[in-house]
Amino acid sequence: MVKVGVHVSIAGSIDLAVDRAQKLGCDTFQMFTRNPRGWRFKDLALEQAEKFITKIKRSGIYPPVVHAPYLPNLASPKEHVYSRSVDALANEIARCKQLHVPYLVTHLGSHLGTGMEKGFERIISAVNTALAVVGENDSTNDYMMLLLENTAGTKNSMGGRFEDIGRIIDGVVRDDLVGVCFDTCHAFAAGYELRTVDALDATMARFDEVIGLDRLKLVHLNDSKGGLNSRVDRHEHIGMGYIREDGFRVVLHHDILKKLPMILETPVDDRRDDVGNIRMVRMLAMD
Predict the structure, then answer these.
(1) Is the dihedral of CA 118, 122, 124, 125 positive or negative?
(2) 232-247 pLDDT, tens per residue?
């Protein structure tokens, strides 16, 4: 069976995310540790963190995943935004360590027209600075890996090609703490075909060549409202977009991908909710 879950709310207290994941029938789940659309945040209360860790152990749900906030831009040429972005990433790493969360997913940001080379320079520096909070001899190292998420290849965005992600990782000093989150919608929109066995094998072979499949730790399983190579970053319900049900059957039966935790970031509307998308994934995985 595949290990699948959704993004859940932390409203009220961060440990309540575990309760919500259980209620939805998740095997894994993703959350923010704070408001994703603001810069300000409060430190996690020790009691809340301990409750979260205890509930995770009792629930059997694993792994919990944290997604970095939306505002930070690790490739930004604007100094005030960049410095706050680096601080935000470092703080998220520390919060993941406190919560014993193994994976922190981050977007790579936009160079805002300054060019890919400048973008690479900024991101690599940001990741190196943020990861410096993880000490060489820190016993909590096992609890945190930073996962770089591939993007849909929209204008000025970083990380739309596997080569881009590989180049960033090559520049990271503590590359043992860096992995990849593979988003199916983003990959498809960026031009990577996933819908047939041969095409997906070719895509994964390219990933292995330039990044290494050993770095692939998590899948964001999303259908796409845009077509192949559309550069449109819009998620759709599983099977209702251009990847289609047949495409997800291929993905969910791939020898590597089917063993990874999968997080759905699909819509919730009158067509289908989170439970419905989880059910669809499990059905397609069994076909």
Answers:
(1) positive
(2) 999 999 999 999 999 9
